[in-house]
Hints:
This protein has 263 residues and is α/β, with parallel strands linked by helices. The chain contains twelve helices and twelve strands. The strands form three sheets. Strands 7-8-9-3-10-11-12 form a seven-stranded mixed β-sheet, sandwiched between helices.
Amino acid sequence: MRDISVGYGPVRALRRVSLDLPEGTVVAVLGGNGAGKSTLLRAVSRTLSFQGGALTSGSVHFGGRRIDGLAADRVVAAGISQVPEGRQIFARMTVTDNLRAGALGATGSRAAKADALRRVHDLFPVLADRGAQRAGLLSGGEQQMLAVGRALMASPRLLLLDEPSLGLAPLMAARIADTIREINAQGTSVLLVEQNAALALRLATTAYVLDVGEVALSGPADELAASDEVRRRYLGVVDEDAAADATRGTGAPPTLRRWEADR
Ligand SMILES: Nc1ncnc2c1ncn2[C@@H]1O[C@H](COP(=O)(O)OP(=O)(O)OP(=O)(O)O)[C@@H](O)[C@H]1O
């Protein structure tokens, strides 16, 4: 995405955000509450208008094709699926019907959809075991698995994940992280939005830090994880020396790009 700006009426949620996601990688977007992380995903999946938002500038390309003029269902058909914030499963439908719903926008053949269902059941056996149950009866972690599984039913080339670890116990969050790694290893690119910076930086190749709608920092995930500023603000590491360095402006490693420097 290049120079994306988004507004919800008078609220400016993103300002001139640019981001690259090389094919086959996991890119993480970090930031506190209200930083604009979900908005960024909605700008890709073209679901901003469902929330009263709109792109006011910039462009989004996927696989060489411009997609910021498409309707949301065409974005799914182009190979991008989103796991929305809060999972948004269909609680009164069965687990299997939730999964089938995920294949509705896909362009693949019947056989491709059967393959997708097998892949989801391999990744999350519990979704096969409990296929006939109402989805609302699943635990929080299982519902997150269902939300990811539903998105995979469209066999996306790019998976958009909005805070998959939110509200999960550490063990369950770690399981979800393992599955994201596996999904990526199978060839699906991932754009991961997380407040859990430690988890996201372990999974990602590259990361971006959003601060009040702007990219404050970006760089290789391991270098961001080592940056004093990220450690202090997002990883909860209290280090007096690092804090003093950061206020003197010497905290970030040189390969990290500070957004202001690009302007
Ligand atoms: N539907 C909406 N209408 C009006 N303002 C909105 C809407 N959705 C988000 N915003 C505003 O846009 C800004 C970015 O919100 P967004 O939800 O993208 O942030 P976030 O980083 O995902 O936050 P969180 O981690 O709390 O979900 C915030 O100021 C928020 O209040």
